[in-house]
Amino acid sequence: MKNILLLGLILLFSISLFAFTPVIDGVKDSGWGTTPNHSTTTSKLPTEFNLDGGVYLTDDENYVYIGIPTDNDPWNDSMPVHFHVAIDLRNTTTGGTTDAWGSGILYGQTYKPDFDIITQWNNTDENCGWTALQTWTGTAWSQSQLPPPYIKGGGNQFTEISIPRSILGNIGQGETINISVWARPDYTKTNASVCLPADATFPTDWGNGPAGTFTTQFSYTVQTLLVGMIAPQMVSITQLTDSSFNVTFDEPMKEENATEPSNYTFGGGMTVSSITMVNPSVYTFTTSLKMSGGATYSVTAHPEITDLAGNSIDTSHNSVSFVALYYSNVTFQVNMNLEILAGRFVPETDQVCARGGFNGWGTTPLSDPNTDGIYTVTLSIPYGEGSSFEYKYWNNHNAGDNWESLPANRSYTIVGEDNIIPAVYWNDLTPSGITTHVISVTFRVNMDLEDTSGGVFVAGDFNSWNSTSNPMSMPTKSNIYFATIDFPAYSILNQAYKYINGTTWEYIDNRTFSLNDSLTTMTLDVVYFNNSIPTELTSLAFMQMANSFYTNFNDNDVLPAGSNLQFEVKLTPVDVNANSQYSASLHYRPVGAIRWMTESFTYDNTFENDSYWHFMMDNSEGFLDGAEFEFYITATDYNGPELTDDNSGSYYHVSVASGALPAPANVVITIVGHDLHVSWDAVPGATSYRVYYFDDPTNPSSIDYFTVTEPSIIMGGFALSDGHKFFHVTALN
Hints:
- This protein is mainly beta.
- It has 6 domains: 30-221; 234-323, Immunoglobulin-like, CATH 2.60.40.1220; 328-429, Immunoglobulins (Immunoglobulin-like, Sandwich); 433-531, Immunoglobulins (Immunoglobulin-like, Sandwich), CATH 2.60.40; 539-656, Immunoglobulins (Immunoglobulin-like); 668-732, Immunoglobulin-like (Sandwich).
- 1% of the residues lie in helices and 39% in strands.
- Strands 3, 5, 6, 7, 10, 11 and 13 form a 7-stranded antiparallel sheet that branches. Strands 39, 41, 42, 45, 46 and 47 form a 6-stranded mixed sheet that branches.
- Strand 17 (272-279) and strand 18 (282-287) form a beta hairpin.
């Protein structure tokens, strides 16, 4: 994408438009007028994405409205565009000095923003989707949601934003708002791509440039007397644990009031010990005692609960309630002693966790306070008696993502308020399922059929499936690669593994073997990579098989004019995996000719019994109407010898009948310098012509030809033997 350069520095000013109440629907109402409060013009292409339409502002008794004509996302990259609106209230010089998203934008305006509204377009329909209201707390940005109907619009629309004046500190008539707008192609990009007012350091191509600084903003004077004080509302309550829940308001609230328990009435016999702010719109309530599953609890806010502008809670939306979930205490236990002895878990550095439906398959660490190798944790989880959940243990040994390799998840059914799951060994191993001493195992793989220039490796349970940590070597020229690996004491008896050629893993299922604890050394059988065992070719035969486009034939058949021929050979034994390195060839020539022409057969396992190889030839590619040809086939396997089917020395024969086109008439040959000009009368219905030329009409080996589409040809560079050159012209369709 080319850089979009926005012009210069814009001075602060305001334009008074007639105040009105727009419909927030992404469509520009006539009341917005035709002149924006502020506009700019880009000076460089591309113009597909800019803010040249300007920004419109208006207000009514309760809201301030912002309108921005927005272009479609021109990058077509499935990434959601981000729009930012930075707002200062009442010409204050304190506020945010960087954007609220950490995008590398520095706010260097005279009046620092108190709010940073961020709207993200959907990457499917380019409509405004997720929208956040970031509020400057005095030391940092704090995020809350700005939900519909506060914003509508997006790509190729008139994006409209309505902000309650109560959120804006009950901004009054005649007071000033200062605005800056900027956008970028995606939330992962740093810096801006377009901005308004224009700034010398903006925009940068695709964002991702050095930190840019806004130095300009434009002002708007509120026109309407503030009549209605919009009261905040409670919108939802969500239980977090058996002793905590979140309450969400529809706008940022005054923290010191919202976090005071005495400003609420709690129903259901609940007592709240503390309240903490998650963000200005969401607060976490912690109860003194555990809540009872199935019981109904409620929270009612008193008038002391106010928004940032001091508006008291809406008395018709000041109460929320919920039915508490059933919680049970569950103790998880896993015995890691065998893993510790085997060196697969290091207590000083590694961590083992319980993961399952109870924690969204996240990581809940277990600990071993008495260092007995049994790791435990007790959790209060939202499952009542009789309910079940699945889980597994996981560890991070060697910074890995190491799950238990059990064939299925573990499961547990709640039996009461307190549950202790019996301790299990990691992977359900027991001392009887491990080795008691070191066993050296030699792995062997035959790479005779492979290109091994990228190296050969073995990986498996024993090395956490690392594809390069165990290279293999070929001590002789046998193409058999070896690797000897020591399995320490306490290794799992049943091992899985695979071979890797360069970076290509075997595509077969995991190989397996069992450690024999009565031995100190083991040598595994030699296997071919991917089990691609070579097949010794024993016989071949010319075959016929049905096909809708290509004609099948038997020896000595005469086929209709225009036939397309299909040659097939059956190789034995069957090559199911197409890995035997068979090859087969067709040898053919016109009857009476000396030189044989050769083509390769192609393997196709869609043919019956996986045993057929084929070669197909269209009419006019070599087998022409009116011609008779003879042929034979040869085949070989990966190490020879070559087998031949030549019909007991008589060769196979096939003819194609002559077409209905007459021979071209009035063939004329003219010598022009060192070139021969050959022409003839056009033949109705002909699509091409074959011009045969030869020195001796009695010697077929001297015959060659050109194929042309027009009734003439210029031929150069001929040595005229004895002053003679012979020509024959045929018409083709």
